[in-house]
Amino acid sequence: MPKPVEWRGDAIRLLDQTRLPLTESFIETTDYRVVADAIRSLAVRGAPLIGITAAYAIALAARNSRETTLAGFRSDINAAIECLRSTRPTAVNLFWSLRRMQHVLERDLDVIALCRALEAEAKAIHTEDEESCRRIGEAGSALVPPVATIITHCNTGALATGGEGTAQSVIVTAVGQGKRVRVFADETRPLLQGARLTAWELKSLGIDVTLMTDSMAAWVMKNEHVDLVVVGADRIAANGDAANKIGTYGLAVQAHYHGIPFYVVAPVSTIDPELASGDLIPIEERNPAEVTHAGGIRIAPENVRAIAPAFDVTPSALITGIITDEGVYRPPFDFKQIHRSRR
Ligand code: MRU
């Protein structure tokens, strides 16, 4: 599998996920603004990967700053941080990783040492996420029965993270342990991350995957003995409400009706303890053309009104457990203090 993000010392190489699975093409750049555009256009996507990529973008901005004074250099980097912050509003990993970069920027060092420290921090964010994915896989696979049917939504695999994935790491780890797992993957309208990315990744890994449209999930739950649903998250509020790709909420309602366990899977960096509930999570509104068109071809009448919220929020009451790199949390969720012990 091609790596979604590769740091090359003086440049970054990004796999353009908008063109998968038909074309494997890369964006190689030294310009943080090009990286910001790649995040905006979903060439790079998935909450943890957005955070990792933004951190590398700041390392690039640091390398390319012509400022020799500390004040000038810090002002350059803060402008880059602001640019990256404006790319996508929902995935909190973006803001979490930029905050880490900003803390490094405030260290009492000279410009050259700050450049090195920013690059080291970006690499650390990347390798830590790889380890988080491994721990998530271990924690979550314990919940997968020896023979299991799993539904998943959107893409939560290696293309969305620095490692094996979040929800997908649960699946991959369970299969690695010899469990017989079959997966039903939602296609995930409108941008088809399930069809284009998850089906491609799982097939490449030799995992039994069946693609379905999002509207088939309830029927599959009724007829296919589904054992559990695993989905990722872009931001989890202090009370456990979880924002994830549009369609996740509906899937949770359907799982609840059918008595099927519904797990949200994410590193703790996806938890935002500052938001009391999911009502406060900013939801990205994308261009309605993503709904009126498919693959660049108009599928709806001219001038019809369309909406394109990229995410929805699943209320914690519908969530059986939240699988993280620090273990599995069960309701009632209370993440108000989650990052306190670390900083
Ligand atoms: O719009 P996207 O493709 O960035 O949305 C991705 C998702 O919703 C994922 O489920 C989420 O980021 C978790 S990825 C490990």
Ends distance: 35 Å
Q: How many strands in all?
A: 16
**Contiguous runs where pLDDT drops below 50 for at least 5 residues:** none
Strand content: 15-25%
Following the backbone from N to C, one meets helices and strands in this order, namely EEEHHHHHEHEHEHEEEHEEHEEEEE
Q: What is the 3D form?
A: globular
**Backbone structural class:** alpha/beta
Instruction: Please give the largest β-sheet.
Output: 7 strands, mixed
- As laid out across the biggest beta sheet, the strand order is 6-5-4-7-10-15-16
Mean pLDDT: 97
Our Rg estimate from Cα atoms comes to: 20 Å
Q: Helical segment tally?
A: 10
**Small molecules (ligands, ions, cofactors) in the structure:** 5-S-methyl-1-O-phosphono-5-thio-D-ribulose
Helix content: 25-40%
Walk me through the structure.
This protein is α/β, with parallel strands linked by helices and 343 residues long. Helices cover 38% and strands 18% of the residues. The chain has ten helices and 16 strands. The strands form four sheets. The chain has a seven-stranded mixed β-sheet with strand order 6-5-4-7-10-15-16, sandwiched between helices. β8 (235-237) and β9 (242-245) form a beta hairpin. α2 (47-64) runs antiparallel to α5 (111-141). The two termini are 35 Å apart. The mean pLDDT is 97. 5-S-methyl-1-O-phosphono-5-thio-D-ribulose is lined by residues 42, 45-48, 91, 154, 156, 160-161, 165-166, 193, 232-234, 244-245, 310.
